[in-house]
Design goal:
By secondary structure, this protein is an alpha/beta fold. It has a single domain, classed as MoaB/Mog-like domain (Molybdenum Cofactor Biosythetic Enzyme, Chain A, 3-Layer(aba) Sandwich). Helix content is 45%, strand content 20%. A six-stranded mixed sheet has the order 2-1-3-6-5-4, sandwiched between helices. β5 and β6 form a beta hairpin. The longest helix is centred in the C-terminal third of the chain and has 23 residues. The chain is globular.
Length: 166
């Protein structure tokens, strides 16, 4: 079956969880979470869970569990993918991934490079499958959240969810 045929037989509406990982963000300044939610809802998808957690593995895992329990097909984490000592999203979620979509990080860094230059090498953006859910880990900036969501996640999410559930 060709890619266009896969897309035609994919679910029309995807349910998302959105998790902001940050020691400084809260409901009034979660611009990255707002960007992701606006784009997701703008495409007609649903948001089942949205949370803001500290850069702590236990909180990240609790947010993942909550998103899964609330019926999310896809969970987008924004923040905690850099290289500071407090950035632990990658270390927390990568070991849980049954399958990694290497191409997601590669394409994201390529697109980032075109926008911000060589600073893109510091991104540890990743995507993979955890418990038959697609999980995306993005940088915490609103620009990065927009780039990944508009350019990669939304164009391909229906197809990805279809494949994860086969």
């Amino acid at each position: 079956m060709a890619v266009h045929e896969h897309r035609e037989t994919s679910p029309q509406k995807i349910t998302f969880g959105i998790v902001t990982v940050s020691d400084s963000r809260h409901a009034k300044n979660d611009s990255s979470g707002d960007v992701i939610e606006g784009l997701v809802r703008g495409e007609g998808h649903a948001v089942a869970a949205r949370s803001i957690v500290k850069d702590e593995p236990s909180q990240i895992l609790a947010a993942l569990k909550e998103s899964i329990e609330k019926g999310s097909d896809a969970i987008v984490f924004t923040g905690g993918t850099g290289i500071t000592s407090r950035d632990v999203t990658y270390e927390t979620l990568r070991p849980l991934m049954d399958k990694v979509l290497d191409g997601f990080g590669e394409v994201f860094r390529y697109l980032s490079y075109k926008e911000i230059g060589t600073a893109a090498v510091m991104s540890r953006a990743i995507a993979g499958v955890i418990s038959r859910k697609i999980v995306f880990c993005l940088p915490g900036s609103p620009e990065a959240a927009r780039l990944a969501t508009e350019s990669i996640i939304l164009p391909e999410i229906r197809h990805i969810v279809r494949e994860v559930n086969r």
